[in-house]
Amino acid sequence: MATRTQSKSQSKSSSRSQDSKSAFSWGDSAGPLIGAAIAGAAMGFAAHISRKAIIQGMEASAGDWFDMLRKDHDEIQKNVEQMLATDESQTWKRSMLLMKLAHKLDKHAYEEENVVYPALRDDNDTIEADQLDTEHGHVKTLIFDLKQMDSDSPLWLETVRKLRDSLDEHIRMEEERVFPKLKQDLDEEQNATLTTMVNKAGFMMA
Ligand SMILES: [Fe+2]
Ligand SMILES: [Fe+2]
């Protein structure tokens, strides 16, 4: 009986091995394909590792998510002050500064709208998150208006002043009220996760 069971099992296993050979055998031409697949996977893995290393390096140099966003705010406000210091003869400089500001704001808004404001909503600060979102919309509208305007228009400086006032108020709310509370409500691990996510979002927009 034991012998019969053994032989039955051996024969089953041998037939499975033949089946698998017939179903999955790729023949001699599979060698280069498999090699390429392994090389591709290794390259992908290397890219993932280096991307991770870059993100970790950025985190180490830039501090946590709040420090990073505060640094962005300083750069944005400096950029706006440079715009306000121009006159209507400096049309090229105005266009360059506007382009630079629009890019910084896009990256910054992407980080906040896709990471920080959702974290605020999860922390039951929905009203604040919605207000900040609306203010981003207002800033985007002013940038849109400036992009359509001639750089020597008499309205240019007036629009940049409106932009400065909106940004100053918005930044004050984030830095003095909303972000410190969020940072305090989250534990160390949650803050670290937020930092990584802000970095990844910024990396996508860089
Ligand atoms: Fe914001
Ligand atoms: Fe901000």
**Global outline:** elongated
CATH superfamily of the domain at 64-205: nmb1532 protein domain like
How far apart are the termini? Answer: 72 Å
Helicity level? over 70%
Helix/strand-derived category reads mainly alpha
What is the element string, with H for helices and E for strands?
HHHHHHH
Strand percentage: under 5%
Low-confidence stretches: 1-27
Mean pLDDT: 83
CATH class of the domain at 64-205: Mainly Alpha
Overall strand count:
0
- According to CATH, what is the topology of the domain at 64-205? Four Helix Bundle (Hemerythrin (Met), subunit A)
* Whole-angstrom Rg: 28 Å
Supply the number of helical segments. Answer: 7
Largest sheet: none
Please identify, by name, the CATH architecture of the domain at 64-205.
Answer: Up-down Bundle
List the ligand species: fe (ii) ion
Could you explain how this protein is built, in words?
With 206 residues, this protein is mostly helical. It has a domain at 64-205: nmb1532 protein domain like (Four Helix Bundle (Hemerythrin (Met), subunit A), Up-down Bundle). It is built from 7 helices and no strands. Helix 2 packs across helix 7, helix 3 packs antiparallel against helix 4 (91-122) and helix 5 (126-148) runs antiparallel to helix 6 (155-185). It is elongated, with a radius of gyration of 28 Å. One fe (ii) ion binds next to helix 3 and helix 4.
